[in-house]
Amino acid sequence: MGDGQVDKYGFVVPRGNRTFKEIPPLKYMARMEKWENMLSNWENFKSNKLNLLKNRVRKGIPDPLRSRVWLLIADGLTIRSSYPKHLYFRLTNTEEEPPCINVINRDLDRTFPGHELYRTIEGQQSLRNILRAYAFFDTEIGYCQGMGYIAGIARMYMDEENTFWILVALMNNYDMRGMFKRGMQHVYKSFYKASSLLRQYESGIWRKLNDNDMNPQVYATQWFMTIYSSFPIETVLRIWDCFLLEGPKILYRVYIGFFKMNKNEFKEATFEGLLKKIRELESNCDCDLLIKAAFGLSLSHKRIAELDREYTVSPNMDIVKWSLN
Amino acid sequence: MAEIPEYQYKFVILGNSNVGKTCIVHRFANEEFLDSSQPTIGANFISKRLEMDNCFYKIEVWDTAGQEKYRSLTPMYYKGAAAALIVYDISTSNSLEGARDWIKELHDHAPPTVLIGLVGNKLDLNRAVSKEAAGQLAQRYSLIHSEVSAKTGENILETFYNIAKKLPKAAAQKKKQGLKLEEPKNNSFCC
């Protein structure tokens, strides 16, 4: 692909790989057919065949169906219909500005600047409308840097109003709100959980990172606050597919999976060497290998809940030394 | 031939969002302009080795997120720092106000030994903040003032050099990198 051309996912300046996964045409057609069938029997699949649905989503939602499926699995439409019909319209047409409007404005041309949509004034304006509406909708949060990336990804797949409702869903039903609240307690807690789990599942790499003070704090803030938006776009989308269906647990699965798939890559055991390596592996992270590693381990909701409690009641000091605010 | 001494210093870059912190750091480390920079979430780390006046200086830089909400995260970056650069945008008229908040934050919470630079970025754009106003602010709070352009590279290296030169040499032997956050236990020295 030459310069100036737009890739499959709308990027003029590529994020990560320039080549994407190709599914053989026959396999793709079969997959689309399964998905169409699933979509026409959605309620049945969601309530009675959840494991089948999970397996299919983990293989990747076919890109042309992504917007529809994301809205379904995140319950975006249900949330939308639980509020007054014209709420989004009213929020966007509010005359005064929210206190955080300057921060929003400053981020517009810096959010996915390589994507064709955000290279236009209309695209940036649309992102502004969504973030501004959210700031009115949830005045305690207003706008926090990071939310722009989340809205930015969703808006690549759906219209402005649905993006707003997906943002509302993510913030309120997927535990994202706590990440953006003053004090960012939830971010620290995620670091704690992630690190505890890494020690449990991949103790060798955990020790190596820990011995060099390479804490999640140094490299994973954007991973957790923006649902891995800093990864290559195809990988981001695959993570989002699973995250939207299965919830916040996916953040940790992906975290462990990332180190598991790369555990032999961390040869240079210095702070700087490790950080460089993490960034390099992040920007080339293969979606299939990551998903395989992330789901190749058994991680229960119970274990996550245990760690939640542990962090609040009696955190393990080996892990918490850096994660307490 | 005598061995050339090497000193290691930790710098932290602070300042409101979109003043160009990440671009300054990128220009310093890579000597090029970062064309499509994106908001920093959390912080980034880079290091660079400089040679000047027959010494090596290893400068480690923590680049931080600018939005006020992230301020609960920043103290851990400036706590162990030898120097802090507070960046403002000379093309935005009220940008010094933001810098003033950061000065206060550092004066209140950082160790008094941290050397503070006040850095006006975007010298390549039309000026909305006078050099005098920023100079006065710098003088009042005993900061080292400079004006730079991350875009053209003007004065970037010099700003880092000037501050590194003023840092005490005795306590700057090579140290372990990273963020040491816990209080030192059973240690009588102070870091």
From TrEMBL, chain A:
Gene3D superfamilies: putative rabgap domain of human tbc1 domain family member 14 like domains (1.10.8.270), Ypt/Rab-GAP domain of gyp1p, domain 1 (1.10.10.750), Ypt/Rab-GAP domain of gyp1p, domain 3 (1.10.472.80). GO terms for molecular function: GTPase activator activity; small GTPase binding. It comes from the Eukaryota. Keywords: Coiled coil, GTPase activation. Pfam families: RabGAP-TBC. The keyword Coiled coil applies. Residues 60-247 form the Rab-GAP TBC domain. SUPFAM superfamilies: Ypt/Rab-GAP domain of gyp1p. This is Rab-GAP TBC domain-containing protein. The lineage of its organism: Eukaryota, Sar, Alveolata, Ciliophora, Postciliodesmatophora.
UniProtKB/TrEMBL annotation, chain B:
Keywords: Nucleotide-binding. It comes from the Eukaryota. The keyword Nucleotide-binding applies. NCBIfam families: small_GTP (TIGR00231). PROSITE patterns: ARF (PS51417), RAB (PS51419), RAS (PS51421), RHO (PS51420). The lineage of its organism: Eukaryota, Sar, Alveolata, Ciliophora, Postciliodesmatophora. This is Uncharacterized protein. PANTHER family: PTHR47978. The keyword Zinc-finger does not apply. InterPro entries: P-loop_NTPase, Small_GTP-bd, Small_GTPase. GO terms for molecular function: GTP binding; GTPase activity.
